[in-house]
Amino acid sequence: MLLSEYKSKELVAQYGMPIPEGRIAATPEEAEARCREIRAEKYVVKAQIAAGGRGLGGGIRFAATPSSVAEEARRLLGSKLVTAQTGPDGEEIASVYVEAAMTLKESFYIGFALDPRSGAPLLLASDQGGVEFEERARMDPEAVRTLALDGAGDADRAALAEFLAGIGIADVAAVDAVMAARRAFVETDMLLLEINPFARTDKGDWLAIDAKISLDKNAAFRHPEYETLASDDELVGIEREAQKSDINLVKLDGDIGVVVNGAGLGLATNDMIVDAGGEPANFMDLRTTATSFDIAKGVDLILKDPNVKVVLLNVHGGGMTVCDTVAEGVAFAYARAQKKPPVVARLAGQNADWGHRILKDRKVPVETYGTMGEAVKRAVELARGGR
Amino acid sequence: MAIYVDSGTRVLVQGMTGRAGTFYTDQAMRYAPTYVAGVRPGKGGSKHLGLPVFHGVAEAKAETGATASLVVAPADKAAAAMIEAIEAELDVVVCVTERVPQHDMSRVKAALAGSKTALIGPNSQGILTPGQCKIGVMPTRDAKPGPVGIASRSASLTSEVLARCSAADLGQSTTVGVGGDTLHGIGFVDCLKRFREDDETRVVVLVGEIGGTEEEDAAEYLSSLDYGKPVVALVVGRHAPVGRRMGHAGTLSIFGLPSAKEKIACLTRSGVQIAQSPDEVAPAILSALAAQNAVQSESVAG
Question: Which chain A residues have a beta carbon less than 8 Å from that of B279?
Fold first, then answer.
């Protein structure tokens, strides 16, 4: 769950990381009115989307007066911002964050993440902070230094201070701020906390100028505040619908609808479709907790996609998901569907025969094949207009 | 022979008395009678599925000689259960629980450092040595004993690959589901090391996917020595769109997003045979074994 900039900053500020004074606004009028509450010589208007690369993408504008704040907000709000991290369609800007603009003397990058191998919390830091940090880090991985932290307490403050001094952050106030960020990272179950830039202003203050947080939604059970912090905005409409039915669904651009149980089998199926010259309309992973009603909802979503010319059903029954459950789900969806594209089915494992019988008995327009390869080949053929 | 678990393994179940715990324990006990105890704080002294229930793991181990544990605790209690089993110095701990918070796994990994316990999971399908011991939720229908060692990151593909192998008369020494989460216990390299030492295993199959570093680590390990046994790998997600999350937890972009293609390139360089799809796994194993036999008979003849 990615948080937008202002929510990220508010969250770290609660732990003691200093941030510039700012206000959120959804209309140009609101932006103008609210920026008057901020004491500043100059303002900055920032598009709130849950993706990075905004600076280079034109999503951060400076304004000298409240009326030019309104003007910049008008330009941003409702438009789509395309950055290196949003994908080609970009993301619509629904709100802007107006802040006091700062004159920065030094810009650093500070990040926290869990080491994917050891699991230890890592502090990542660089003296190359700022809008081009990611590009610089890619070109020169040495520009980012890492420190493995142990435990959640304040015991290793000395090691942390020495590490920061090594990249040129020596002020006690700055070390305090980084320690605060570290507490926030652990205590709110963040997967990633990035402060970029973490900067010293011309007045000598250390501030988080921008922040990005990803929360671990698996930890939501101990964080009631997550509900107000995060939305599922990163998911597009049908992907969110599918999640409600215990189905991981990712919308793709092709014409072969795919119904599969399991993430690995789903990835393998899509690989085979592309290898055979076809294009999947989606990725699907029916989770083991999905019932036949859930599965029917997932199939509904695929049948509603106007691009879908054929549905490939590839199931290996076993454990919690058996073939007949999936076949039931497909049959429910087909019984109520307007459009009924042909189904190419490969059912294997537990209750495969029973699953095949359900599809036939319920008049699903199905062709069955014994191997994945044959089924994929046939689905690609049908998608190309074959008979 | 087998790796990690065999007919001598004595298994206790943490969370046995719950609905999922009861179901999985019952299934596994029907398959092989290696289960000796259940653990459920507050329910010590009772019996469940004919097995004694204890308050804690250490007590259960002392009373029954348990050597392994199956953790089926809910996500909010799984980390504490794993740590309790690690501290009780069990040889093998299998956690099938899904959605364990990553910071909890950070603490579990800290507890594992320096311990002798092999943790499998979380979010793992478990481990199966056909005919001897099953810990977890691995389907047993298609499994049979034989020379193929399997280590897999994907539950659905494990079922698929295992069935294909058995259909081609390629039984398994042991099948290990290392789990789909970013932070987990043993990985491909640990399994490869064990399979190398295992006389019965003649060929190893790795089932990988996008994200994480398992495949790269395996390639590095295999390049570092003469492994002595053929290794076949299936890595899925070659055509997955970059940067989109596909089911399992991906790796954060700051650590790089290794694509399936990069993983395949790495593995190929270290001598691993690549199967492009599940359909190709069994043929790849058969050709690897045939090549190995040819080399062996040549060296015998020479």
Answer: 272, 371-373
Question: Do A142 and A225 sit in the same domain of this protein?
Answer: yes
Interface test with B, best of A218, A315, A322, A351 (most B CBs within 10 A): A218
Burial profile B106-145: b = 16 or more Cβ within 10 angstroms, e = fewer: bbbbebbeeeebbbbbbbbbbbbbbbbbbbbbbbbebbee
Q: Are B179 and B267 in a shared domain?
A: yes
Say if CB A102 and CB A201 are below 8 A apart: yes
CATH number, domain of A131, equals: 3.30.470.20
Q: In what order do the strands lie in the sheet with B118-120?
A: B47-48, B51-54, B35-39, B11-14, B68-71, B92-95, B118-120
A251 shares its domain with A264: yes
Residue B286 burial by CB count (10 A; 0-12/13-18/19+): exposed, middle or buried?
middle
Pair of tokens at residue A302: 């695929």
Q: Cα–Cα distance between A77 and A318 in angstroms, integer?
A: 49
In this structure, the number of other CB atoms found within 10 A of the CB of residue B265 comes to 14
A58-62, A288-292, B51-55, B242-246: which is most confident: B51-55
Q: Which residues pair with A113 in a beta bridge?
A: A122, A192
Residue A334 annotated as catalytic: no
List of residues 6+ apart from B265 with CB closer than 8 A:
none
Rounded CA-CA distance B286/B117 in Å is 34
Q: Is A99:A61 a contact under the CB 8 Å cutoff? A: no
Number of Cβ atoms within 10 Å of the Cβ of B282: 22
pLDDT in tens, A212-258: 898 998 999 999 888 877 654 555 677 878 888 888 888 888 999 99
**Of the candidates B132, B128, B106, the residue with the CA atom closest to the CA atom of residue B8:** B132
Q: Check whether residue B22 and residue B62 sit in a common domain.
A: yes
- Shortest CA distance from A190: residue in chain B: B103
Which chain B residues are within 8 Å of A119, Cβ to Cβ?
A: 105-106, 108-110, 183
User: B65 with B76: CB under 8 angstroms?
Assistant: no
Question: Whole-model pTM?
Answer: 0.90
- Structural domain harbouring A191: 1-19+104-232
Give the integer Cα–Cα distance in Å for A23 and A37. 9
Which residue carries 């103008």 as its tokens? Answer: A32
CA dihedral B95, B100, B103, B107 (to 10 degrees): -20
pLDDT band at A169 (very low <50, low <70, confident <90, very high): very high
Residue B188 Cα distances to A283, B120, B202, angstroms:
26, 11, 16
B-chain residues near A85 (CB < 8 A): 243
Are β-strands A104-114 and A60-63 bridged in parallel, bridged antiparallel, or unpaired? Answer: unpaired
Among the partner residues A250, A267, A349, nearest to B236 by beta-carbon distance: A267
Give residue-wise pLDDT tens across range B142-157: 999 999 999 999 988 9
Residues B294, B168 within the same domain: yes
Both A97 and A210 in a single domain?
no
Neighbours of A293 (CB within 10 A): 12
Distance in Å from the first CA to the final CA of chain B: 30
Q: Two tokens at B170? A: 């390629």
What residues contact A307, with CB distance under 8 A and at least 6 apart? A253, A254, A255, A281
* Domains contained in chain A, number: 3
A198 lies in the same domain as A260 = no
CB atoms within 10 A of CB B51: 19
User: A285, A269, A256, A270: which is closest to A379 by C-alpha?
Assistant: A256
- Phi and psi at A208, nearest 5°, equal -85, 105
Decide which of A209, A232, A255 is a domain's last residue.
Answer: A232
Alpha carbon distance B99, B79 (integer Å): 11
The domain spanning residue B154 has which CATH number? 3.40.50.261
Unique residue bearing structure tokens 């510039």:
A20
